[in-house]
């Protein structure tokens, strides 16, 4: 946006530079907007859920019901159904993951905040790394280190020659593909979604400054941008769900016994 | 991602969106762990408590209802059995009464018949006795009368007891014959 204002000769399409926000206080790299948003989400989620769960009534208030709905969704649909009888150990992690990602995603369309934290790849990396550590740790604890590695490298029920192809695939799946796809899926969705909104809103803004014909087109750009905002909301919820779902499935896989 | 060309580009222009920033990595980790600790300590146990209490309340309610139902069924079967007992008893009492009544009637009838028979027998006996008595006294009187009459008529004293008796017998025999 700074670039846009500075240059007169034409429209500078939004790009990667729009995601590199400078630190707010001097040169301190810990004072960027995404970091503030991440901590803001921690405060908002904590306050909301503590307020919702504080009384733990049998007949819930509206607030408690709202909080319980989110919690119950993660607990039952993502925890109990996928992980099975040991699910309760992982509910706090899954719940934190879901609420943290969801809130930070939705920041992308909240007025004045309007930046999805997860479009900064560092945050999805951190979350995917935690999931990576958690599900491998669970698998090793459950099966023993050697048995776990053996199961990853040589999945049972496969003809021996196939291992030539399968073993490298399996190793890369467990060590590289899973955490990378997990983080990049979330990152890319948020990045692309934010970029799309920028294109339509900044583009519309630029059209308004053009000749009369372009001014007439501008409302369409804004209308499309608003429609895309709703679409983004769906994507944001969906990505939070998918990240948590896959984490639950990885944990379930690590806990599953050989068939 | 670790392609040297991309890395160079990122290092030069800081524009590769796939290269993480140390500050954000650390801040993200801290934020996430902070949130995790808060939710695990404060929120999850409370929601679980609410869920458990609710399950308990519902299960307890159902259990109480089932118990009430069971009690009601037991009471109903008790009353039903008592009622059928009472009905059976009443039936038995009625039956006994009928049998007893019949027995009493039978006994009375027998007694009455016996009495009647006894009275009849006594009456016949007394009639017979009276008849005998009447016959005897009649015979004596008729004999005496007839003897007196005959002695008066034939003028002959018939004092002799033996003769007298023979005459009377003949007379009565004739009398009976002519009857």
Automatic annotation (TrEMBL), chain A:
Family: Belongs to the ATPase A chain family.
Record-level GO cellular component terms: proton-transporting ATP synthase complex
Gene3D superfamilies on file: ATP synthase, F0 complex, subunit A (1.20.120.220)
GO molecular function: proton-transporting ATP synthase activity, rotational mechanism
Keyword terms, alphabetized: ATP synthesis, CF(0), Hydrogen ion transport, Ion transport, Membrane, Transmembrane, Transmembrane helix, Transport
Location relative to the cell: Membrane
Record-given protein name: Unannotated protein
Organism of derivation: freshwater metagenome
Cited InterPro entries: ATP_synth_F0_asu, ATP_synth_F0_asu_AS, ATP_synth_F0_asu_bact/mt, F0_ATP_A_sf
Pfam families from the UniProt entry: ATP-synt_A (PF00119)
Its membrane topology: Multi-pass membrane protein
Chief localisation class: membrane
Transmembrane stretches, start-end: 35-52, 90-110, 122-140, 186-204, 216-234, 240-256
UniProtKB/TrEMBL annotation, chain B:
Listed Gene3D superfamilies: F1F0 ATP synthase subunit B, membrane domain
Regions that span the bilayer: 20-39
Membrane topology value: Single-pass membrane protein
Keywords, sorted A to Z: ATP synthesis, Cell membrane, CF(0), Coiled coil, Hydrogen ion transport, Ion transport, Membrane, Transmembrane, Transmembrane helix, Transport
InterPro entries: ATP_synth_B-like_membr_sf (IPR028987), ATP_synth_b/b'su_bac/chlpt (IPR002146), ATP_synth_F0_bsu_bac (IPR005864), ATP_synthase_B_chain (IPR050059)
Cellular localisation: Endomembrane system; Membrane
Pfam families: ATP-synt_B
Annotated GO CC locations: endomembrane system; proton-transporting ATP synthase complex
Gene Ontology MF term list: proton-transporting ATPase activity, rotational mechanism
Location (main, coarse): membrane
SUPFAM superfamilies (alphabetical): F1F0 ATP synthase subunit B, membrane domain
Keyword Coiled coil belongs to the record: yes
Positions in coiled-coil regions: 62-96
UniProt record, GO biological process: proton motive force-driven ATP synthesis
Family that this chain belongs to: Belongs to the ATPase B chain family.
Function: F(1)F(0) ATP synthase produces ATP from ADP in the presence of a proton or sodium gradient. F-type ATPases consist of two structural domains, F(1) containing the extramembraneous catalytic core and F(0) containing the membrane proton channel, linked together by a central stalk and a peripheral stalk. During catalysis, ATP synthesis in the catalytic domain of F(1) is coupled via a rotary mechanism of the central stalk subunits to proton translocation.
The protein, known as: Unannotated protein
């Amino acid at each position: 946006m700074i670039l846009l204002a500075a240059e007169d000769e034409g429209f500078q399409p939004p790009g990667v530079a729009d995601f590199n926000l400078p630190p707010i206080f001097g040169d301190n790299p810990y004072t960027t907007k995404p970091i503030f948003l991440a901590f803001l989400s921690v405060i908002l989620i904590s306050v909301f859920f503590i307020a919702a769960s504080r009384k733990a009534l049998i007949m819930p208030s509206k607030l408690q019901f709202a909080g319980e709905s989110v919690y119950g969704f993660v607990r039952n649909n993502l925890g109990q159904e996928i992980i099975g009888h040991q699910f309760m150990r992982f509910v706090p992690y899954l719940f934190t993951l879901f609420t943290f990602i969801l809130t930070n995603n939705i920041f992308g369309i909240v007025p004045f905040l309007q930046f999805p934290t997860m479009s900064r790849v560092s945050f999805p990396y951190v979350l995917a790394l935690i999931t990576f550590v958690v599900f491998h740790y669970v698998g090793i604890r459950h099966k023993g280190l050697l048995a776990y590695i053996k199961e990853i490298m040589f999945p049972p029920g496969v003809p021996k020659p196939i291992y030539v192809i399968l073993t490298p695939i399996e190793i890369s799946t467990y060590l590289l593909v899973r955490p990378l796809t997990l983080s990049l899926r979330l990152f890319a969705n948020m990045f692309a979604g934010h970029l799309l909104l920028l294109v339509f809103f900044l583009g519309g803004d630029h059209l308004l400054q053009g000749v009369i014909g372009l001014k007439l087109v501008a409302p369409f750009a804004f209308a499309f941008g608003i429609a895309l905002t709703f679409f983004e909301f769906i994507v944001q919820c969906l990505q939070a769900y998918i990240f948590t779902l896959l984490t639950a499935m990885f944990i379930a896989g690590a806990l599953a016994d050989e068939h | 991602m670790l392609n040297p060309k991309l890395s160079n580009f990122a290092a030069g222009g800081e524009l590769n969106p796939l290269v993480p920033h140390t500050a954000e990595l650390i801040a993200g980790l801290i934020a996430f762990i902070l949130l995790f600790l808060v939710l695990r300590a404060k929120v999850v146990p409370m929601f679980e408590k609410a869920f458990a209490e609710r399950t308990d309340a519902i299960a307890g309610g159902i259990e109480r209802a089932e118990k009430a139902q069971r009690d009601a069924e037991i009471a109903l079967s008790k009353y039903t059995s008592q009622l059928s007992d009472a009905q059976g008893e009443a039936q038995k009492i009625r039956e006994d009464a009928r049998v007893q009544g019949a027995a009493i009637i039978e006994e009375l009838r027998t007694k009455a018949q016996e009495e009647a028979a006894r009275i009849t027998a006594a009456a016949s006996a007394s009639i017979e006795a009276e008849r005998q008595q009447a016959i005897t006294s009649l015979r004596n009187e008729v004999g005496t009368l007839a003897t007196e009459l005959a002695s008066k008529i034939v003028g002959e004293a018939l004092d002799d007891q033996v003769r007298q008796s023979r005459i009377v017998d003949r007379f009565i025999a004739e009398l009976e014959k002519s009857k």
